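FAQ: What does a multi-protein file look like?

Like this. Sequence, then tokens, then the next protein.
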Amino acid sequence: MKQETLDKKIKISNDLMFYFYKYIDTDINIDELADHFKINKFYMHKIFKEVFGRNIYESIKSIRLQKASNLLLTNKYSTISEIANECGYSSQTSFIRAFKERFSMTPNSWRKGGYKQYSHKILLQSPTAKASTANFELIQPQIVKIPQQTGYYIRHRGYGYDQSKLTWQKIQTWVYQNELKDYKEMSLFHDNPTITPLDECHYVACVIPNDENEVKDQRLPKFNISGGVYAKFDLEGKRGDLLKFIHWVYHEWLPKSDYQTTTKPPYAIYHKNHYLNEDQEFSISFYLSIRL
């Protein structure tokens, strides 16, 4: 397959995936989507499955349920019906049925504590997170307002260290090719890795140039990172600590705070990237979208 054709397939599939994440609270019409992207509907289905190994309908359902499972924990003032609507379900009955099929419990049982056992099993999938002794109780976030940002990215499925390191090396190669001097490195967490099996999570490695005019090579796809109000946590640690930290943010800090989260994905800005350093240590600012 020609590289140009492969690049085009990957770009279309990534654009579709970002569309699903961004508009997951709406009724996504596949025919209208094909028209929007000016592509044959059947070809659209074909290349999406080639790239992601899962069909479009399965992906949309998975994203809806991931978002819902997250909001059930963090948005304590929202009813189950409101959360179902926010995740694109027009019927509470169909939402409960789909949720029970995925998580083997009702949304109400999940909210009342069933998530803890499920989440603990996810954390145990990472030996480094399991071994982490980091404690985050003294960390206090700043509340900040962030403008929309534009980034160039590579996405892969799964949270394996070797795979993520390879992705970041490719990002680094692209940075060198463009001779970028002023940029930020970001990991975007579309999927909450504390309630989504790690091999199912989509990992997004991203570079945000300070001056887009410096970008000469448009090979990497680009997207907009939503602006808004975020809780900003500054954190240093070693490989394994980050997953445990995300677990703490969602299951300890957020439920005890007066905030709710939104469907906007959290992200980490790297000041030191553990995937690009031999000591596997990191320094980050972690941003969690919040609202009252």
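And here is the next protein:
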Amino acid sequence: MTIPLVVGVDGSEAGLEAVDWGASEAVRHGVPLHLLHAAAGDRDAGGVLGAASARARKSAPAVRLSSEVVHEDAACALVDLGRDAFALVLGSRGLGGLAGMLLGSVGLAVAARADCPVVVVRGAQEHRGDRFGCVVVGVEDEHGSGTAVEFACREAQVRHCRLVAVHAWSAPPGACTTPQAPSWPLEAHVRPPAQVLDDTLRGVPGRYRDTPVCRQVVEGPARRALLDAATGADLLVVGAPRRLGHPGLQLGLINHAVLHHAPCPVAVVPQR
């Protein structure tokens, strides 16, 4: 049985935008689409789910569609389903959320705890299709970014578009340097920024070798480099490390920044 892509719906317009995106994504990957509505006292649960199902069928008539209503906390229900899901897809804010910039509390909780990739559908309509022909992935190093890079390669492949791999770095104050040949003394375990990017991309599985890749090594804060790159992207992918003894994902400052401010959908991918 193929595991489904799960979309959380709550009756909001952002939730319906997530249905549109999730339906297209399910078709791209040939996986079923499952809609989840956590009722939590909602008397119109059937209406919410009916509207979302109709939207999914309109967006992707051929998608294999299922749905369910659960009577529990939305974040907990989504995290539970995420243990056996292709990905979880959410709108950028729910009913009553602050428009424009901030991620809703359910989305943030799910992104912080889920065991599978979580996609938060953000940005204007132009960023929710394939207009730009570009998937951006943030690269920290091959140990902290390998799974995110593989996910991003897969997304670029099914979209038949290019992948932009971004690695941000900072030189010591006063140093005169380049990403390829830093002038400050390097410790034995420290590599030039360009090599970090090359080493990470070298680990990409062979089935993605035909995906066109653009490397960007940027001096400065990672959150700014990623947000700048995302202005011309259909999807921004970031990794989230795991810490021993801490369940789920650990969201740092960079991931918080892109989840709150990115101009396009953001995928948060747990690192193996």
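Q: Is there any per-entry metadata?
A: Some entries carry free-text notes. For the entry above: The chain is about 35% helix and 20% strand.
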